[in-house]
Design a protein that fits this description.
By secondary structure, this protein is α+β, with helices and mostly antiparallel strands. It is built from eleven helices and 25 strands. Helix 5 packs antiparallel against helix 6. The termini are far apart.
Length: 537
């Protein structure tokens, strides 16, 4: 395979100027491999095949675009392929979702009936609530049993007079004996009528120790507010009951409220602090004189005066509306004042409200009369069996005269409708209400609010569709006159104007100031019970 360096081939010796040796030339075929066992050969072949297959698979998968950007080329084959990949991977993920069932954990300790009874005997909170659980120590010889449970020396509570109940029955239900209850009624009746005590009046009662077993506790003290300006107190003195009157100073200055009408007269008046009942009376009386939708501008000033009482102890009580007015540019536009025993409202000129005949259900103008017309929704000629009045959404609708409610509910194209039956075979119906204020069979009075303007049923906007019937036949409501007014004249008119001028001198908001409590009011307002002293004033 090779030649030694000491042997030189002919023509390749030192004489030729070349080394006298020659390098060996080896080839890969001339290397003889070491012997390998047959099992290792098969393992090496399988590993090489696996690596080759894996490399080929990785190359092929790298060339396949399985997850393209779904925001590009929407609708193409590549996009649908990516969508399929996304749905498939999502389905696989949901298939291996663990679920939402709760996992049961083993209890920290084994709880059986004996352990549960032990837990119950150690509870503390049920003891505060009057339960029978908790550890109890056994009685010793030092414990002496009582013949009877001790009773509280006095019992203090509050009794409330409910509507339809008498003062005596309320006292007896509170646990006061019949003799004491009769004596209390007799003492109170000497000062105020028992029927004049308002329902909801709260009475502070103190009962003493019972004289014997099974006998009622005697009345020790009783106090309540009989009137806004009077408090009564009854106490036991010298074996009998004595009444003490505690007058309370009351100021009756009327409450005057003024403000800008704005876009909503009702909201503006409520925001100014006017009571809701006074605002309703104001809108009802003013609406009988002017059109509230078009007759009152946002820049106008409303002016109302309400009867108002304030006690020295701090209580306040708002009464009925006394004056309703509207001013424009600093000048009175409408002035109405309550006058006379009937409580009617009269204008400054002396013209009063209607006293007979039929009222107009809403003060708005007439937008559609009785007769044939083209229906605004159905589109064909059709008999209009009533009269349409313009009105704002939620405006009160009043009964034109006394009667009772025949029906109140949904009535087809009329929407929410109320039908009233009056005397002499006369009936009226009020349609498209947003809300009804009466129910079937109810008696209504002239001028009573029976509902509110709306747009229910076949309606293109808020208004009142008003129908009138005589003996079951529809008649034209315009054939009935709505104007019958009372007038003041002579001395009555002079006194009316004098009272009106004096009423308008009341300063705005003067009735809201405190009048201050005197020594008597302060003493009567001081709480006598410990639980009342703990509550913040």
């Amino acid at each position: 395979m090779f030649q030694s360096r000491e042997i030189d081939a002919p023509g390749h010796g030192p004489a030729d100027g070349a080394p006298g040796w020659r390098a060996a030339a080896l080839t890969h075929a001339q290397i003889e491999p070491a012997p390998v066992p047959g099992l290792l050969k098969r393992v090496h072949l399988l590993g090489q095949r696996w690596d080759a297959w894996r490399w080929q698979a990785e190359e092929r998968l790298a060339r396949v675009d399985l997850a393209p950007d779904l925001a590009e080329a929407i609708g193409s084959r590549r996009w649908f392929r990516g969508l399929g990949t996304f749905i498939g991977l999502s389905a696989v993920s949901l298939a291996f979702w663990p679920g939402f069932a709760p996992l049961e954990a083993a209890p920290a300790t084994r709880v059986d009936d004996a352990v549960r009874d032990e837990f119950r005997s150690q509870m503390i909170m049920p003891l505060a609530l009057g339960a029978d659980s908790g550890r109890h120590m056994g009685a010793t010889r030092a414990v002496v049993p009582l013949r009877a449970a001790p009773e509280r020396p006095t019992v203090e509570f509050v009794a409330t007079l409910v509507r339809g109940d008498s003062f005596g029955r309320m006292l007896q239900r509170a646990g006061i004996g019949a003799g004491d209850a009769a004596r209390v009624e007799s003492l109170i009746a000497q000062t105020v009528r028992l029927g004049d005590i308002a329902p909801g009046t709260q009475v502070d009662v103190t009962l003493g120790r019972p004289p014997g077993e099974g006998q009622p506790r005697p009345l020790d003290a009783l106090s309540f507010r009989a009137r806004f300006d009077l408090a009564l107190s009854i106490e036991r003195s010298g074996g009998g009951l004595a009444l003490e009157r505690k007058p309370i100073r009351v100021d009756a200055t009327p409450l005057r409220i003024r403000g800008v009408a704005g876009t909503s007269l009702y909201r503006s008046m409520r925001a100014a602090g006017a009571p809701a009942s006074a605002v309703q009376q104001y809108l009802r009386e003013l609406g009988s004189q002017v059109d509230l939708d078009n007759g009152v501008l946002p820049t106008d000033t409303f002016d109302l005066i309400v009867s108002y009482r304030r006690a020295a102890t701090g209580e306040r009580q708002a009464g009925q509306l006394l004056y309703a007015g509207i001013e424009r540019a600093g000048k009175p536009r409408t002035q109405l004042m309550r006058w006379g025993p009937g409580g009617q409202f009269y204008e400054a000129s002396g013209v009063g409200e209607q006293t007979s005949g039929l009222l107009q259900p809403v003060p708005g103008r007439i937008t559609s009369n009785f007769g044939m017309r083209r229906h605004p929704i159905l589109g064909y000629l059709r008999r209009h069996a009533g009269m349409d009045f313009k009105g704002g959404y939620g405006q009160p609708i009043v009964a034109v005269t006394d009667g009772y409610v025949l029906s109140a509910g949904r009535a087809g194209g009329c929407g929410n409708a109320v039908k009233l039956q009056h005397a002499a075979g006369l009936a009226t119906r009020y349609c498209h209400m947003s809300r009804m204020a009466v129910s079937g069979g109810q008696q209504v009075r002239r001028g009573q609010v029976i509902g509110y303007v709306g747009s229910t049923g076949l309606s293109t906007g808020p208004h009142l569709h008003y129908e009138m019937y005589r003996n079951g036949q529809a008649i034209n409501p315009a054939s009935v006159a709505y104007v019958t007014r009372a007038l003041l004249s002579g001395e009555s008119l002079a006194r009316f104007r004098a009272v009106l001028a004096q009423l308008k001198t009341v300063p705005t908001g003067a009735a809201l100031a405190d009048i201050g409590a005197g020594r008597e009011e302060t003493a009567s307002a001081e709480p006598a019970r410990e639980i009342d002293r703990l509550e913040p004033k």
